[in-house]
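User: Quick sanity check before I run a bigger batch. Here is a single chain. Can you write out its predicted 3D structure?
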Amino acid sequence: MPAITPQTNASLEDIVSKLRAGDDFVITGHVSPDGDCLGSQLALAHTLRQMGKRAVCVLAKDDPLDRPFSLLPGASDMVPAALYEGACGVFVAVDVPTVERIGDAARLLERAGLSITVDHHAVDTTMTDLVHVEPAAPATALMVWEMCLQLVGRPTSEAALCAYAGLATDTGCFQFQNADASAFSGALSMVEHGADPALVAREFFQYRTLASMRLEALAIERAVFSCEGRCVVSFVSAADMERLGAVKADTEPLVDALRKIAGVEVAVMLREQDGSVRGSARAKDAADVSVLARGFGGGGHTAAAGFTVEDTLEGALDQVLARIDALYGASA
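Assistant: Done. Predicted structure follows.
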């Protein structure tokens, strides 16, 4: 039996039973959605629609989806939560544990007849009627896929592709510490149901714009090392983004480039955005970057986490470097 949090009050089977009984669903993820978030939303929506139910995926913030996320089946039909005025019989939150992280979807949660959370981020609070959280799960998409199998027996290839994209991205293309046996067995099931691993690999891990490559060169050039070379931080400014014609998706691979540097155990990439700074953290071996992210009000997992610093880029860099020294100065 998988390890669950004390806040968990429902099994996946319990949640599947409630999904079978519902008719109108709103499915949300978190602000700044990643592949696991979007893949989980879309996989569940495809499966509920396969059952003849009405399911709408909403975006926590009214921000456009860049490639490769925009290529996921059903992504073009996602609706900003702030603009959705339809039915909300059952509200499902995937890959997000707190109301602060669902952004504009909070108002939909308030009017839902039943609310459900399926996630792998452990927190001390709950926001929905039913909660199922498995902190050790490689991805929320893997739990969603299990529910899809229970709901219909044979989910569509679109659902399988979305779930596979979620699983692949949250395990770093099956390279992070969380890529355990369940991740590979789940991936096998998704592929058997029509997911295309080559497509996901090409679009999510092998597709780079020229702007993204130029940002990577800047990130490597600006890298600041600490803790005897075990930790590295770099940054790109809003001016860099504008000058190179880059979009947010162009910055996603940068932290992994830092992580690959020999001897590095903790890598952090900072991106200036709208008066604040977004941080992405990655770890190798036994290092844990979730504690770093939580210190700034963010969250994530041992090997991958994110956070936002309400400061200038220079101020955020100073804060992050100081926090890294305090956390990992002895050993990461």
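DSSP finds 13 helices and twelve strands in the chain.

User: Great, the batch can go ahead then.
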